Amino acid sequence: MTWTWFHRLGSPPHIYRLATRLTPWFAWPAALIIVAALYGGLVLAPPDYQQGDGFRMVYVHAPCAWMSLMVYTTLAVASAVGLIWRMKVAYAVAASCAPIGASFTAAALMTGMLFGRPMWGTYWAWDPQLTFELVLLFIYLGYMGLRSSFDDPQRADRASSMLAVVGFIDVPIIHFSTTWWNSLHQAPSVLRFGKPTIALPMLIPLLMMLLGFTLYFVAILLVRLRGEILRRERSASWLREAIVS
Amino acid sequence: MTAFFRMGGYAQYLWPAYGITFAVVILNIVWARRTLARARREARRRLAVRDEPVLHGEEV
């Protein structure tokens, strides 16, 4: 078995060029899919029989919440890869994820408050899912704070990655909290075992939103990753080539 | 059209939620591009600092 692909995966110049080339292939489909999903969610989907038109908030709230968990999972996996194989590029991926994930976690909390006010009668409750989502925001902020507290980038990578791997425990807790505990928050209706419990004209725009936001995340990640690689590369002559192009 | 913007009485919650989400979407694009531009500027400066003595050496 040949391991060249694995070594190329760890080669900063290769990843830099690949990231440059791939970005538009994620960014443009993301934009198209999100615009189509907006039309589907705001116009085509029928009002909910209980929540009326208010349910349409799910088309922004769910993607934000999805981003908060999916980006953290990426961050944690990249951190683990970095710790295990001492792969510089993996640490760069992890560091690039953090601000994206933190901002969408904040958005998930804020859109959730706006959703909660008319549906539950309150902006906030110390409910398990809400509380652990808030904890996730603090884990993101802790990760970024810890990184910036080191002068030595290698020690920053190692320490922050350990925090990221330990912090991953919060992700399954958030996802399953509505099943494990009595919660104000409804249980998952799409990402669950068995069939989705939501009607097709409502479900399709939601799935499109999740897909669109995932592609968008990859595009943003690739741009940030290039910056992160440039910042870490001290010696290479390819740097000259990379910044001229 | 006004019925669409009224959103069955949920407008005051729904539109801010959409506003926040897409503000974060746009902000992430701006931040990412700025971070990359800054990294490129810094890399260019590092290269310039390193090249200087060589250039002077050649000139002399």
What does this structure look like?
The complex is a heterodimer of chains A (245) and B (60). Chain A has 245 residues and is mostly helical. Chain A has a domain at 53-185. Helix content of chain A is 76%, strand content 0%. Chain A contains nine helices and no strands. In chain A, helix 3 packs antiparallel against helix 4 (88-120), helix 3 runs parallel beside helix 8 and helix 4 (88-120) packs antiparallel against helix 5. Chain A is globular and about 60 Å long. Chain B has two helices and no strands. Chain B has a domain at 33-60. Chain B is rod-shaped. Chain B is mainly α and 60 residues long. The interface between A and B is medium-sized, with 39 and 31 residues.
**How far is the first residue's CA from the last residue's CA of chain B?**
75 Å
Parts with pLDDT < 50 across at least 5 consecutive residues of chain B: 55-60
| Most extensive protein-chain contact, per-chain counts | A-B, 39 and 31 residues
Backbone shape of chain A: globular
- Rg for CA atoms of chain B: 25 Å
- Using only C-alpha atoms, the radius of gyration of chain A works out to 20 Å
| Main beta sheet of chain B | none
**What value does the average pLDDT of chain B take?**
85
Number of strands of chain B: 0
> What's the mean pLDDT score of chain A?
91
The share of residues in helices of chain A is over 70%
Keywords:
heterodimer, A: 245 residues, mainly alpha, 9 helices, 76% helix, B: 60 residues, 2 helices, 90% helix, rod-shaped, disordered C terminus
List the helices and strands and how they pair.
The complex is a heterodimer of chains A (245) and B (60).
Chain A: H1 4-9, H2 12-44, H3 58-85, H4 88-120, H5 128-148, H6 153-167, H7 170-180, H8 200-232, H9 238-244
Helix pairs in contact in A: 2-8, 3-4, 3-6, 3-8, 4-5, 4-8, 5-6, 5-7
Chain B: H1 2-6, H2 11-59
